[in-house]
Predict the structure.
Amino acid sequence: MATQNSSSTVSPTAPTNTPQAPLSRYASRYRGVFEDLDPPSALSCNPTDTISHALLSAFERDYTHLTVVSGTNRALLGYLSIPHLRILLETGKVRESDEVAKAMVKFRRRGRVYRVITMDTSLEELEAFFNGEETGVKQEFAVVTDDKRRFVLGVATRTDLEEFARRRPA
């Protein structure tokens, strides 16, 4: 999977009840739910961890995204995009000795409704989420949680979904 780097993405969305037409050339191959992607477990770090620790953890597992959780109650606070982090390091905006909090993208909780992605979310819904069908904003990854959003279970990217569909027979 491309993103072993870390979303139930909980991403901004508006409810929609209308079925969508097939979304991509792969849509007919999905026939399943998120769990069928067999995503790796999410890899999380704390905001007080050093950037070097987060980078090492991500590289060891070939992850592109890490979730950032509270060190006290494991609440999902945001995420760390490794490709974006590399840019921040190259431009000198952060250093490897800085805390993850300085480079993470924080989830905005006030006034936002997030789309909950669970292991039971259909792959068609996941693709619609990546395409920004509900919000008009494309998403690069999804954080998968339990139904009540208490636990981060995994992360997936559009590439993970496309690779899954390519491997399935038509």
User: Anything to note?
Assistant: Strands lie at 11-12, 44-45, 65-69, 76-81, 105-106, 114-115, 141-145, 152-157. The helical segments are 27-30, 51-61, 82-90, 123-131, 158-167. The first strand starts at residue 11 and ends at 12. The chain is about 25% helix and 20% strand.
